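Input chain follows. Return structure tokens only.
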Amino acid sequence: MVKPELHLGLFARTFLLLALLMLASLGAWIHVLFTLDSEPRAERTATHLVNAATLTRSLLEIPDHDMATLIKQAVNAQSGLDLRAARPKEVLPELPQTEYWLGLQEQVRRVLGPSTELLRSSIDESLVWVALPLKEETYWLGLDIDRSQPVTGVEWFSWMIAAALLSLVGAAVAVGYMNRPLARLARAAQQVSRGEAPEPLPEQGAMEIRELNGSFNRMVSELRQAENDRNLMLAGISHDLRTPLARMRLEIEMSPIGEEQRHAIDQDLSQVDRTIGQLLEYARPARKPPESPVNLAELTSDLINQEKARFEQAGGSLEFSWKGDAYCLIDPHDFSRCIINLLENARRYGALNGSRAEVEIVMQSRGDRIQIDLSDRGPGIDPKDIARVMRPFSRGEAARTGGTGAGLGLSIVERLLGWAGGSLRLMPRKGGGLTARIELPRSRRPKGTQEASQDGTEPNAG
């Protein structure tokens, strides 16, 4: 069973770590407080209890019976004191075996005698009874020790909750202060990865942050300059190469050569022009993604309608079907280029032994991904050659790729899909042939758009 992975950001991870450390420190502080305060509290309570017991016993030892009665009344009238002539019934069999109660009992017996009985009320936990043995009878003096106890119960819980909340707020503020520059840097890095030019990061704050932001700003500036130089170089190359090609075509049309030779030369020049176009397409920077998702089913349907004629001329067939919504944040031109490159590859090499090319495109939504399978019945590609043909300027066996092309078609598709968070996979098709699978992240249908049909099929183009 695969355990679910928690995808937490830096802020959440740091906040949880600091919160756990602060709460652990708070718990340790409370434990130390109770531990260190236990013995002093026991001494204070024992002193209070011993003084009250000694004074009461001294008064009770007066022979006058009437005076003893008055003493009982006077003691009982005092807040927190209770004097009885009989053993209380509502007492626990023994004291709790904690450091506080054991220390209290030891302090009392040290002064009143080792045989002094000390009991705790079972009704009122703050009431402690101590035996006062006299000649004729034994009295029991009850003392409310709640005044000697520290704040407990609801008050302690309230203080703990308040301290914990203050600790969490402090952790959130501290983590936010530390995480804000990193979050700003992460957003800027994402913009750079999409081919955008982010605003310069502020070079202020901690020394490490200043150095990091300064280095990032210099890197972005150098990348922007390199991109501008590349675009200028590509534009120059395109102009300097395509201008002679156009002039050569004109000279060939005007030259007194045979039609077959003219057609062969024109095909070679067209191949050179296509190769230049592929090189420029592969080298160009990423386009900015659209603000709203693109309907891939509608876009693919339009492309299929445009490519019907080419498949009809070659005697082939082209089918397209889809299921569910297929919206994605991808540049429409980039997606169209991917489909056209794969269709062109299937049209050329998707037929086996001279038969017609049968191409099928199936688009469907799978969770948060869109899956597009473009399949043919050609000779396919050896699985061990798939990784190699995906590399730029690489071609497979002649049976699949022939001798033309620059070997950039699949590399361009993979590059364009990667900018949108997608991927391309080549796999053998069941029954023979090749399947090119495109996977792209699925987006929600834009608000205000009508819900498209959940499934559809483009008619056979052959």
